[in-house]
Amino acid sequence: MKLKIHEYQKTYLAMSTTKNLFLLATLMVSCLAFSQHKHHGKSDSTNTANEYMHRSSVDDLIMRFESPERDAYQKPDMVLEYLGELKGKQIMDIGAGSGYFSVKLAEKGAQVIAADVNDEFQGALKMRIDENKLENIELRKIPYDSPNLEDNEVDMVLIVNTYHHIENRSDYFSKVKKGIKPEGELVIIDFFKKEIPVGPPVDHKVSLVTVKKELKEAGYTQLDVNVDLLPYQFIIRAK
User: Fold this and answer.
1) Nearest to 185 by CA among 223, 218, 131
2) Same domain, residue pair 117 and 65
3) Same structural domain for residues 150 and 216?
4) Which residues in the chain belong to E strands, given as ranges?
5) What pLDDT digit, counting tens, does each position of 6-16 carry?
6) Taking a C-beta distance cutoff of 8 angstroms, is the pair 110, 88 a contact?
7) What is the largest CA-CA distance in the chain?
8) Which of 14, 73, 158, 221 is the most buried (most CB within 10 A)?
9) pLDDT tier at 48 (50, 70, 90 boundaries)?
């Protein structure tokens, strides 16, 4: 809704009847209510973050996710080097989307579970897997409230730019922890909660302090935090 209050005034001030003046007042109140909801409502919920992202079509999102502009700030080669030896590891990529990291992990020799809640992303990634004959990526549709992992199923769970989309995170990541082998780890990469040129609005992001608190509540006792490798994102390796 892009109309401003003064545009309503322009349209209706010429109306002089009591009925039309009442209508004008009603419309102005409605517009104010919409504006307050849009700008001052709670924006840090999972649904709001998802709704914000999906204002764009899946095709547009895939183009954005796979763009050279993302490569420039995401620095995937540096991230993969930072993660160490990946060959032969079983890794779940939560919020895999277009497969940006899933494909790169598979190319490094990992056995990848590309997990997402969205059917369109899963369909697009299936086409990519088939076209490139990638045999070490498995698709897994997951619900919003569970990673859908078996106990001790994977060596690593990677979640990039998706943490802020998840609700009831302490509960969710306790389920993630059960799915990781005893010597495995959870790796979270997400945006700093401040004004930066990339990522969602500030009020959709989750602060590093909050992430650490929620992970501790979920049962993780070892948190290795890196705020220097990437320009706009932190990395947490949790066990």
Assistant:
1) 223
2) yes
3) yes
4) 90-94, 111-116, 137-141, 154-160, 180-191, 223-226, 233-238
5) 333 333 333 34
6) yes
7) 77
8) 158
9) low
14 shares its domain with 73: no
Q: At what angle do helices 100-107 and 76-83 cross, to 10 degrees?
A: 50
Whether 46 and 145 have beta carbons less than 8 Å apart is answered as no
CA distance 117 to 96: 9
CATH number of the domain that residue 119 is part of: 3.40.50.150
Q: Which residue has the higher pLDDT, 207 or 16?
A: 207
Do 202 and 99 belong together in one domain? yes
Q: Do residues 73 and 166 both lie within one domain?
A: yes
How far, in Å, CA of 222 to CA of 238, rounded?
6
Q: Are residues 114 and 10 in the same domain?
A: no
Residues 213, 152: one domain?
A: yes
The distance of Cα 39 from the centroid of its chain, to the nearest Å, equals: 21
Burial of residue 82 (number of CB atoms within 10 Å: 0-12, 13-18, 19+): middle
Residues 57-114: tens digit of each pLDDT = 878 888 999 999 999 999 999 999 999 999 999 999 999 999 999 999 999 999 999 9
Write out the two tokens for 196: 């930066």
Confidence of residue 184 (pLDDT cuts 50, 70, 90): very high
By CB atoms closer than 10 A (0-12, 13-18, 19+), residue 90 is middle
User: 49 vs 204, which has greater pLDDT?
Assistant: 204
Query: What's the domain count of the chain?
Result: 2
Domain that holds residue 21: 5-40
Query: Looking at the structure, do residues 32 and 139 belong to the same domain, yes or no?
Result: no
